[in-house]
Specification:
By secondary structure, this protein is of the alpha+beta class. It has helices spanning 8-21, 195-209, 227-237, 276-281, 318-330, 361-372, 434-443, 451-455, and strands at 39-48, 53-61, 72-73, 79-83, 91-94, 101-106, 114-121, 124-125, 130-131, 134-135, 139-141, 144-148, 157-164, 173-174, 186-187, 214-218, 247-250, 289-293, 296-300, 336-340, 377-382, 389-391, 400-403, 413-420, 423-430, 464-468. It holds the Pfam family Pur_ac_phosph_N.
Length: 475
Amino acid sequence: MICCRPSRRALLRWSAVVAGASLLPAVEASSARASDDVRPVNLELVTVTEATAVLTWYTGVPGTDDGLGRMQPAPSDAEVLYGTHPSRLTSVAHGASGTPYHYVELTGLEPGRTYYYRARSRGRDAAPTWLAAGQAAGTPYGDLFAFTTPQPPPGRHLFSVALCNDLHLGETVAGLVGQLPWIKGVEQVPGHPPYPEVMAKALIADARARGAHHLLAAGDVSSEAAPADLASAKSILDTFGTLGDDYLIARGNHDRAHSGAPYDGCGPGEHQGNDCFKDAFSTSGQTYFSHDLRGLRVIGLDTYDKPGDGGDSGGLSAEQHAWFEAELNKDPERPTLVFGHHPLFTENDPLAITGAHSLDAGQSLRILTAYHRTPGVFLHHAGHTHRNQRSVFPLAPRVVQQEVGAVKEYPGGFTLLRVHTGGYALNFYKTRSDDARAWSERSRQELSGQWPQLSLGNRPTDRNTVVSRDLSGLS
């Protein structure tokens, strides 16, 4: 899950949060129900664009436990009643029936309109995911929920880019944090395909279906950079297109150079061990690069360009940092997107005290100062935290830092960047294959079921935003 080794003190504090959260209101079985009874829960308003909205929820058997602390899955129907007035829900949308993992997309919505809705299975309203610091299903309105569609980005649509991270090919247990015995991981159902492969394949299918022309993966494509896992990641990503043209990869701390027999066949790393990632994914001999994407300058950073075991803060080598600032200075006005694994800083993060969730603070301040001098930079995409979080820092207020939820576990998806001549939109999508939806719902039970508190995104703007910006020079 989280790609670091937090301090014991921080984890003791977090365990208190988890323990306290278990006392918060929850949907519980109040009496014995008929064997065909179902309860719809975990309602989430995932995606809102100017014309669409995506809702997901889960149906289970009340009074049961699947061993992870959730109800046993119960297949059911799914429908959403919605409209522009709370007393007139005149439209209806249906999801696939016969599944407990519901995914319903509303289409044909009008920009700038408020919609009211209720989602239900077997005539029962779905209860929303409870977030301590936000609202998962939209704005409550009596027994309904509401959301407002944005205006589209100004101008003509040019192209779309899927932003993703944390595929972790080769991982077998999700949700392990530190060595504390009460932090238990979640494994795939026996006999099912490995969950990193399920989620990575669903990523490619949905990114293409959503119209992505290009894909940027911001690190941790592997569990621990084993050659077989990197090869598996590349074989899946190659189904999207060609490395270096259609998709680009930045290195994460899990992809760093490693020592030991499994890595002996790879070339030497610059810091320690053998660098299998560079053998698999570098097209320039470096793990950082600048690339022209239809006129957009895309800069990929290696945010663990340093010695270490991957559990501490990220960092750029002095050589990479000098190259990065020189690259920005070449054309400060050019529209520029930067992506790398570690965020510059992490806001609203209970585990930020560990100091392992972001880049070295001094380097981050230098980067933000460089962004202030480079007006063309508009977006910094990061992973590592496995959550959706939008941040804007005072040192560089024109730049949005977008952390994106992990591909490999709940919420399980990617952010689609839609570039227009007059701005851009960022929308997070959960992957929607049957196996992906099943694993996403299963892996939400990480951290004793409290993982959505950290990962979904507390605000709608953590998952969906529209920004006006002059990008008319792009093709």
